[in-house]
Write a structure and sequence with these properties.
Elements: H1 7-10, H2 13-37, H3 44-84, H4 99-160, H5 165-180, E1 185-192, E2 197-205, E3 216-219, H6 221-230, E4 234-235, H7 236-240, H8 246-254, E5 259-265, E6 268-275, H9 286-313, H10 323-340, E7 344-351, H11 354-361, H12 363-380, E8 386-391, E9 394-400, H13 404-419, E10 423-425, E11 428-430, E12 434-441, H14 448-464, E13 470-472
Parallel strand pairs: 12-13
Antiparallel strand pairs: 1-2, 1-6, 2-3, 4-5, 5-6, 7-9, 7-12, 8-9, 10-11
Helix pairs in contact: 2-3, 3-4, 4-5, 4-9, 5-9, 11-12, 12-13
Length: 473
Amino acid sequence: MLEFKNPFLQRSKFMFILYGSLVIIIGLVFTAFLGYRLLDTKLGIPLVAISLFLVVITVFTNYLMFSQLFKPIQLLIRETEETLQGMRKGGISLVRDDEIGLLANNFNQIVLDAQMKRMELETSNRELASHAEIIEKTYRELDKKVYDLFTLFNIGKELNSTLSVESILKITCFTSMGQLGITTMTILFLEGGENERTMSKVYVKGMRKDPNRPETLRTSEEFLNFLRLHEQSLLIEEMEAKPEYKAELDFFNAYKAHLVAPLMAKDQIIGVMLLGRKLSQDEFAQGEKDFINTLASLSALALRNARHYEQAITDAMTKLFLKRYFQIRLDDEIKRAGRYHNKMTLMMMDIDHFKRINDTYGHTKGDEVLIAVANAIKDNFRDVDVAARYGGEEFSVIMPEVSKEDALIPAERLRKAVESIPFVLNGENVTMTISIGLAEFSKDAQTPLLLIEAADAALYRSKENGRNQTTTA
C-alpha cells in the first residue's frame, strides 16, 4: 500500500510562524510596558498606543491564518492520507472557494481519474485473462488435432500394410478404444443383396458372451439410406426419434452402443462401428466424432480391399484358404524354414467315407459336414498355421516351426474333436471321422511337391490301416 508521510504533522512550518508571532507579541507588550513607564514623556502615549495596536493586529492576523489556512490544510492532509490508504471513500470532503478548495477539488479529480483508470485496467486484465483462456483452449484443441492427425497417419499406414481382415479389425478397435477411452466396441459387416440385407457381428470387445444377444440383424434399405444421408457418426439418441428404425436401435442397444459410425467405402456401406460410452461418461466432443469419422473411412477402404483379397484366396463355403494360395504359402514357408534352419510340418487330412454321405443324405448335408470340419480345424490350430481346403473333402494345414512329433498333438486333438461332433443328418445321428498324414521338412522332403506327396502317403496309410487315425511319414 502507498505510504504517505506527513511532513506538516512531523515538523510544521506554521509552528515557526506561531513562535515568531509570539516573539513579536512579547516584544510589542514589552514595548507597551516600556511606553507605559514613559507616560510622562512625549513618546510614552504614542508608543503604548502603537504597541497595543500592533499586538491586536498580530493576534488577529494569527487567528485568521490558523482558522483559514492552518486548520483547512491540516484537514486536507488528513483526508488525503485516509484516501490514499483506502480508509476513505469518495475523496476529500473539504469545500471552499479559495486555493485550498481548488487543491482539494483537483485532488478529488485525480482520485476519480485514478479509480476510472483502475477500473479500466481491471476490465482489460479480465479481458486479457479471458483471451488467454481462449488461446490456451485453442492451443490444446490444435495440439489434440495434431496428435489425432499423427495417429491417423500412422494408423493409415498400418491399415494399408495388411490384407488381413482380422488385423484391420484389431487395429480399428484398439485404436478407437484407446484414443477415446470407450468401454465397449462392436464391428458389424453388411451382407446380402438388394432385397435382403443382414448385419452380422464380426468383432466384439469389452463385453462378455451372452447367448441371448442377437448375432445378426435384418435391416432395410431405408435405414442404410439414412446412414448414407448423414455420412457421419450418429448418437443413439439421434436414432430414437426415428420409430421406423426400432429393430436397428434394439440391436445396437444390445451391444451397448452410444455412437454409431458407418463404414463407407466409395459411397457403399460395408458395415457399422458401434462404440460404447466413454469411461469418463462424458459426451463425445466434435473433434472426437471427426476422429472416428476419419478412422471409419480409412478402415472401410482397408476392409473392402482385404475382403476382396480374402474372397480371392478363400473357399466361399468353408472359409479356409484355397489350394492355389496354400501352394504359394507352402513354398514360402519351406524357403523360410530352409533359410533359418527351422522345422515345418505339413498335415494332409481326408474325411472318411464322405462320398457315402453325399450319396445317402445329399450334397447339402455333405456341405454341412464340410463346414463343421473346417470350423473344427480353425478351433484346433494356431493363428500362424495355414489351413486350406485342398480339394473336395481333403484339407491341409501348414504348421511353421513344428516337428511332426509335436504336430501329433493338435492333429489328434482335431481327430477327436471331429469324431465327437453330433451330426444329425435327416433325423439320424451320424459319427464322422477323419484320417490324417504328417510329413516334416526337411526330414521327409525338401521341396513343396515332395512334402505334399510324403504327407499324402502317410494319409493313405492311415486309411489302409482302418481310418480315423494319424500317421507320420
